[in-house]
Amino acid sequence: MSRLALRTEEIQPFHAVEVLKQAQTLAAQGRDIISLGIGEPDFTAPPQVVEALNRAASAGLSGYTPPMGLSPLRGAIADYYAQQFSAPVDPSRIIVTSGASGALLLAAMALINPGDEVLMPDPSYPANQTFIRSAGGIPRLIPCQAKQRFQLNAQDIREHWGPSTRGVLIASPSNPTGATISREALKDLIAEVRQRDGFIILDEIYLGLYYDEAPASGLALDDDIVIINSFSKYFHMTGWRLGWMIAPPALIPALEKIAASLAICAPSLAQHAALACFDPEVMRIFDKRRLSFKQRRDYLVPALGSLGLEIPVVPDGAFYIFTDIRRHSQDSDAFARDLLNQAGIATVPGRDFGSAHAKHTLRLSYATSMDRLEEAIERMSKFLGRQAG
Questions:
Q1: Taking a C-beta distance cutoff of 8 angstroms, is the pair 132, 112 a contact?
Q2: What is the DSSP string of 35-100?
Q3: Domain positions in the chain
Q4: I need a labelling partner for 224 at 20 to 30 A (CA). Which of 2, 195, 271, 370 fits?
Q5: What is the CATH number of domain 7-44+282-388?
Q6: What local confidence, expressed as pLDDT, does residue 12 receive?
Q7: How far apart are CA 129 and CA 118, in angstroms?
Q8: Which among 304, 296, 384, 300 is positioned nearest to 339, based on CA atoms?
Q9: Is domain 47-279 classified as CATH 2.40.10.220?
Q10: Residue 225 to residue 299: CA distance in whole angstroms
């Protein structure tokens, strides 16, 4: 057999997926496992979206679409940004992709040359490093602390930008912390990158899931950055594999050319179905579900704190809590393993998201029902009591 490419050795395992496999194995053995691990909403697509899919399938609308996506869908996404986030955008700048992953891969292929360095926060979503490496780039994780909401800031750009640095990849709200970047902090960061003629890729796939004041889209602050978003999280369509990118006009011809070769088009039936997401009645469903996530956050944050699981930054978006376990353990891998095997609770150890906080943090997803979260807290209380004893 031929030798594998060297990049295969550089790509790290996605531990959240490994945890899911372990949890599924235990469940298959008859164990009752509460999953606070995988970042997948327990809600699924509303009935109106499923009905739209069935109509499209019955009408035979399963052929290729244009590489940029269906024009009506691109227009609906543009309206969504204008109405929800005060960020008007021309639909011609929107590319519909095979999930946010397809958009990130497309952005990496268009913007990164072999050897280019891309700055990212530590902690951050691990798969983003893989997209950078796929284009021959070098992801460089910058340790970020609670006082900066675990996000890159302007000072980080000044201190860590080097001769090979080409740009930054950031997310707001973030996975794993659920923390947004404030409008002023984002504005300052953008200015620092602009001074160095770098690119900014901003992952906004959790933008619709906010629990305090509505966050600012980067598009409202700067018209020349690359925005990544998805139907997976706020719209609860994970397996439909549908996302989008908003890019500066100058990049569109190159992006369209690459998109046509890499994927031909995003899943066509999913595109037709996604049009129903923007119906006012369906949008009210999504907002009601957003408030359900807020209720879960508001329950879990104090409940975890009462167990000595500290939360350095209270999440204001997404559906994750990044908790500090140092009062109970200095080894998050062992702690997560014991929590799964002894208490039947799946979580993700901090090493998935970078080395800076790997040993003393866990990511918990509250994308599950309130009754299961209450059961999880009860099990944790017993588990930690046994440990203390």
A1: yes
A2: E-SS---S----HHHHHHHHHHHHTT--SPPPTT--HHHHHHHHHHHHHHHS----GGGEEEESHH
A3: 7-44+282-388, 47-279
A4: 271
A5: 3.90.1150.10
A6: 74
A7: 9
A8: 384
A9: no
A10: 36
**pLDDT tens-digit profile of 174-220?**
999 999 999 999 999 999 999 999 999 999 999 999 999 888 899 99
Contact 137, 166 (CB under 8 A): yes
Write down the H helix ranges in the chain.
7-10, 15-28, 47-58, 71-85, 99-111, 127-134, 154-160, 183-195, 252-262, 268-274, 280-306, 332-343, 370-388
Q: In angstroms, how far is the first alpha carbon of the chain from the final one? A: 54
User: How far apart are alpha carbons 271 and 69 in whole angstroms?
Assistant: 8
Whole-prediction pTM value?
0.94
Placement of tokens 């052929």 in the chain: 63
From CA 80, how far away is CA 62, in angstroms rounded? 25
Structure tokens given for 81: 């940004």
